[in-house]
Design a protein that fits this description.
The chain is of the alpha/beta class. It has 18 helices and 13 strands. The chain has a 7-stranded parallel sheet, with helices on both faces. Helix 7 links the parallel strand 6 and strand 7.
């Protein structure tokens, strides 16, 4: 996608929109918003910023690809602080040069809040934050920054709207983007198995490995050892692995080679299909955990980051759960394997119990099914979001 990365463009940038996403889920969201903006405004407007392949295909001119921004935690970015600073300075220069009328921030709070501060200290440009930080879970002190630097929030969980309203922050809720998208997904196990030459009766475990390089480096060895141990016990499972296109090419190629040497491993580029057709899934992000839950695919949540980053997170984290599924239900319905608990010796027995204990499996799936009821929302999410964005720029949607 090198030809989608811009170097510098002169000319008239009036009416442009800057859109900043820093990870795979943000890229997917940003692409759909950009597509609707172009469609509903009747204008192939100038949208530029940071994102991935999906945003580039949607017409966003990328200054940086998310591969260049894939940092997670606190310690990990410090190791590349000078490289990160150079990229941020480049973005600042583009913002000053292009003078966008609106900035849309998508998730990625550490980076986006820093950039919002720069914008508001130098201009009056309107900023909309789509999927703001989860301050209701940790680092609640960031509410002051949101009030100071952000003009409007668009949240994706119903409880977030009431939370921000209580703190007198301008906020809108148009449902969750996944709910409408996944409603059209139809499970076709036979077709999936036929295309991968699998016996439909075989147990399928989908394993998400993370879209950021640092997280992937932590989880890939765990997944590798897990598959090796299961294979050593001669248990007949198939493992569907998803390698995100936001990973560094050399890292993805190295681990694709490693995993290819293990029995029962197949690769699937479409994460939703991997989730939809699995009997069990290992997820490591709020998005994939929720997607699996809405698709009614049972999932375990597993994550491991640098020890220093984990220590800092625990200083500020206010809840006993990490997956968004458990936040919605306000209890530990989804099993979580976090940090020192994220080991093969802990995950493997849970997998065996899930498949061997019918009562446990039934109760587990029943609890997770409650999420879909709580997330029901009939509105067209992206169309509603785009109408709102256009209204803030005083443009009439067609």
């Amino acid at each position: 996608m090198k030809n989608s990365i811009i170097n510098h463009e002169g000319g008239d940038e009036a009416g442009s929109i800057m859109m900043l996403a820093g990870e795979k889920s943000g890229d997917d969201y940003g692409a759909k918003i950009a597509t609707q903006l172009i469609k509903m405004s009747g204008d192939n407007r100038k949208i530029f910023g940071t994102g991935g392949n999906a945003m580039a295909r949607a017409g966003v001119k990328l200054i940086y690809h998310i591969k260049d921004l894939a940092y997670l935690g606190y310690w990990e970015p410090l190791k590349d602080i000078f490289v990160i600073r150079k990229k941020i300075n480049r973005l600042k220069q583009e913002f000053i040069y292009r003078k966008p009328k609106l900035v849309i921030l998508i998730d990625y709070p550490g980076f986006n809040l820093y950039f919002a501060k720069f914008i508001k200290r130098n201009t009056n440009t309107k900023i909309i934050y789509y999927i703001p930080p989860t301050i209701w879970a940790w680092k609640e002190n960031r509410i002051a920054k949101l009030k100071k630097y952000i003009d409007h929030l668009i949240v994706i969980f119903p409880f977030e709207r009431s939370y921000y309203q209580k703190h007198h922050v301008a906020v809108n809720f148009f449902g969750h983007p996944l709910y409408g998208e996944l409603a059209n997904f139809k499970k076709d196990r036979q077709k999936f198995c036929d295309s991968n030459r699998l016996d439909p009766s075989i147990k399928i475990i989908s394993i998400m490995l993370g879209s950021r390089n640092t997280l992937f480096k932590s989880l890939a060895p765990i997944a590798y050892d897990l598959i090796k141990k299961i294979n050593a016990k001669h248990i007949n499972y198939v493992f569907v692995l998803c390698l995100s296109d936001s990973l560094a090419d050399d890292l993805a190629q190295k681990w694709r080679h490693n995993f290819s040497n293990l029995a029962g491993v197949i690769f699937e580029s479409n994460a939703s299909q991997a989730l939809l057709n699995a009997d069990l899934c290992l997820c490591n992000s709020g998005t994939t955990a929720l997607e699996a839950t809405l698709l009614q695919t049972p999932a375990f949540f597993y994550i491991k980051i640098a020890p220093i980053s984990a220590f800092i997170v625990r200083l500020f984290f206010k809840k006993p759960w990490f997956s968004i599924t458990n936040f919605i239900l306000q209890r530990k319905a989804m099993l979580e394997f976090v940090q020192e608990d994220c080991t093969v010796d802990n995950i493997l027995p849970a997998i065996h119990k899930f498949f061997a204990d019918q009562d446990f499996r039934y109760d587990y799936m029943k609890q997770l099914s409650e999420v879909k009821q709580k997330m029901h929302y009939s509105i067209d999410h992206y169309r509603a979001v785009t109408y709102f964005i256009l209204s803030t720029t005083k443009e009439r949607a067609s």
